[in-house]
């Protein structure tokens, strides 16, 4: 019984993440074309020992394709311009993405992608919305990237035919989200939840993001 309790304590400790929000310079390896798009505010996710695991820098204003009604009713990931730059990610330690793929330490861009509704993808994730990690040295366009090219670009991170994926969960009660936080939307999954300014032409609004920082799909 004592051993069982010790194991439970160890498991709880291993999955205890913390969040630090600060102002931090953008990675020098990020393209100078992209740097002006991102805010210098950093969101650092630390592991149980307090060591940095992931650091995010998010775009100042997220580009939308939305109508006035959609803006008034609240936008979702589906109104974000597909393939657009969402932010930059520094992976400080070896990290496992939602597909159980190993991601090496380094700096990556994050671009939005919607998983196609095809049979081979059915049931692989609870949601279809993702950010794809792309090699920072090869991603220099301020414009949105088409899905086929984006998948090819992200696949260079994994060295396989599959892109590296960061699952996005829907953000509920956006108006109540006063500051960034870590949240557990489902068992054994942790997300970084934050709000960003967004715009469709001259129409301004806000959008929430919930990036999966820990957790993998269940086979």
TrEMBL record:
This is Uncharacterized protein. It comes from Telmatocola sphagniphila.
